[in-house]
Amino acid sequence: MLDSEMVEKLKNASVEDRIAVIEVISPSKEEIAKAGGYYTTTKGGSERVSTLKFYKGLADAQGLNLDGKSALGSSRGGRSASYRISVQANGDLLIGSAYTKQMNLKPGDEFEISLGSGHIKLTQVSEEDAADLQRSAFGFMKNTGKILGDVVEPVIPETQWDVLQ
Fold it and tell me: Which portions of this protein are annotated as coiled-coil regions (predicted)?
């Protein structure tokens, strides 16, 4: 058990020093957080220990960024992605740049649209798939026709050809 004098001394120490001292005496998680100064005293005089704040402080001291904020405590401005969109007045669905940046999409990237029961699925088409799709569009009727003979004269007289008028 840590006495109040030990707790006061540890308050002014670095987080790493606090952990080193506390590990020697192996107290409970609450005692570790309290020794680090992560507690408040209620109006009734009881102490409320905040282990979560202690763990966040320890992570910050180790250089870990767990909450999306920088080590200085300031977060990057702007809105975060909500993963919800609405149909625009003109009927379009607009997927914002937060999503396209997250997926490293570039202008011209293509997607296949699949409609399901109550949902729309977008599947990114790779450059190879797009090239295969384009190649298959040319010559897709190959070997489907039958040659019955040669065309040896026009079906209509030349005087009726619009091109020659």
Answer: none
Q: Give 125-147 pLDDT, tens digit per residue.
A: 877 766 666 666 666 667 777 77
Report the alpha-carbon distance of residue 67 to residue 56 in Å, rounded: 9
In this structure, is residue 57 part of a structural domain? yes
Query: In which band, very low, low, confident or very high, does the pLDDT at 71 lie, cut at 50, 70 and 90?
Result: very low
> Does the model's pTM come out above 0.85?
no
Q: Is residue 144 part of a domain?
A: no
How many domains does the chain fold into? Answer: 2
Structural domain range at position 127: 107-137
